[in-house]
Amino acid sequence: MARLEDQKIWSEIKPLLAIASIQEVADRFGVTPGQIARAAVRTGTRREPVIAKPAPVASPKRGNTSALDGYRHLLGVEIDRVVARMAGVSASAALMYRRRHGIPSAPSSRARPLAATGAPSSPPGEVRPSKLDAFRELVGAFPDRLVAERAGVVTETVRLYRVRHGIPPVPPVALPTPPPASPMPAPVAPPAPEAVPATATWAYIATVRRGDTEQQYIVLGGSVAEAGSVAVRAAHDGQVISLVRHLEGLV
Description:
The chain is of the alpha+beta class. Helix content is 29%, strand content 10%. The protein has a 3-stranded antiparallel sheet with strand order 2-1-3, with helices on one face.
């Protein structure tokens, strides 16, 4: 059997070795890779290695979320710098986000005069819809913070919406004034014993009970009855429980 390089197909195989692998050429012409390799060695055919092209690497997809997603309804209504400050990003990031989503820029302050409150008034023409439109009956009736939690936005968004539509804020709730402290009652001094009658000649020790306390007084009288009458008058709201003549109290 004639060698491969002596056959007519070798003239077709030889140029293909520079652009295809030996296996691919062998399959095409119905020969074995070994026959092609030996024929290439005998004829001094230099086979250039076939370098496979690298498969294209898919670039990682960028995330679909952005810090500006929650403020998208403000883009085109407020200037980029204001929206960027609320979202915590740069003004250039807000500009690129707005252009990427095809949102027109907000009217400048010259074309949109400021209201008395300092907030820009609504631009002329059609007003852009806002997420807070569905909660408008709550704006001004409840604090901005509660409306923001209900609508899923930040408090500053509710404040801007309220100012833009001329809705006053919820008035602060006045705390009840505590009642004045009642004055402390003045201490009541015990009544002083009445003056000793001029005719008194004996000193008596009168014991007077007021509630749970007992006090003793010295009263003068010419007799026990007279001294007891003096003690009763001196006791007032108390009760005379004893009256003893003081032996050394002779006047």
